[in-house]
Amino acid sequence: MKRVFIEHIESYLPDERICNEQVEQRIRAGGFDIQAGLLEKMIGSEIRYYARNDEQVSDMAVSAAQKLLHHYPDRKIDLLIFAAASGDLIEPATVNIVQQKLGLTCPGFDLKNACNSVTNAIEIASALLLNNSYKNILIVSGEKTSDSIKYTNIEKETIKDHFAAYSFGDAGVALLLTTTTEDKGLFYQRHQTFGEHWNLCRIEGGGSMFPNDASKLVFSGDTFGLKNVIYEIAPPFVKDCIQEAGLTVNDIDLICTHQVSKDTYRMVAETLSYDVNKIMQTFHLYGNTAATSVPIAYQQSLLDGRLQKGNIVMLLGMAAGINISVQLMKV
């Protein structure tokens, strides 16, 4: 039986390493006297990385892709997908810029679905590989969400609307997908959209709602409301997916989930009655890196030796919108 599998994965982090204290200093420099240690108390002790001002989203995607392609100098890439919440421009699609920088000649397109952009790209790529449209698909992502953090004109009454952004970090990833007849790879994929909650978490600028309002280019939203909705809708969806795949939660050896705070992995463990030690924790290392967070967690699990041949892994995506995705694969 033919399956799609992630043959290789690489990531890229910018040079500037930022801690909570430095973020608080930037907030104070913007005119708001934030309490020292508040970020650690609210979102957890963490590090994140910020791209340079002249470092583009495409640059981070390309840096990760170059590391990957170094291992496959003779591999012909048939399709290139750029998948991210971020982008170099509104038009043209960022994939064109990535293609030019990598020197590729294959077709390509952008796929955007907030923090589930990469997980959705894996699902789309899987369908294209299984129907023999392509043999080798390269998925790349670059996230520069540090540009959407609000540091100025903050008031006590509204800081909560922008608080989640203080955990944002920048990163790039690249994944090579192909097929195999071995007993490994992706064997279940499903995602669901709950669009009635789209207004809970947003960056409003750059689209037709606010095309010329620069003040709307920062993150805002009801993150506490979002957390409550996720608590309500995600567990039954994930449990249904596990059952539909013919498994129990105990059959899953590791969960690589999108992480937005120190409490994300605990929430997943609690609501699924799952061993918290079997959830890959990366938030303290990289912060919330948007669509690159799930693949980074998966790569980290490989680097740390957390996975052995035959293990079953869940990629659990959660994104503004709201969108939830579940992907199960055998290593």
TrEMBL record:
GO terms for molecular function: 3-oxoacyl-[acyl-carrier-protein] synthase activity. One of its GO terms (biological process) is secondary metabolite biosynthetic process. Pfam families: ACP_syn_III, ACP_syn_III_C. InterPro entries: ACP_syn_III_C (IPR013747), ACP_syn_III_N (IPR013751), Thiolase-like (IPR016039). PANTHER family: 3-OXOACYL-[ACYL-CARRIER-PROTEIN] SYNTHASE 3, BETA-KETOACYL-[ACYL-CARRIER-PROTEIN] SYNTHASE III. It comes from Lacibacter sediminis. SUPFAM superfamilies: Thiolase-like. Coiled coil: none annotated. Keywords: Acyltransferase, Transferase. Residues 109-185 form the Beta-ketoacyl-[acyl-carrier-protein] synthase III N-terminal domain. This is Ketoacyl-ACP synthase III. Residues 243-330 form the Beta-ketoacyl-[acyl-carrier-protein] synthase III C-terminal domain.
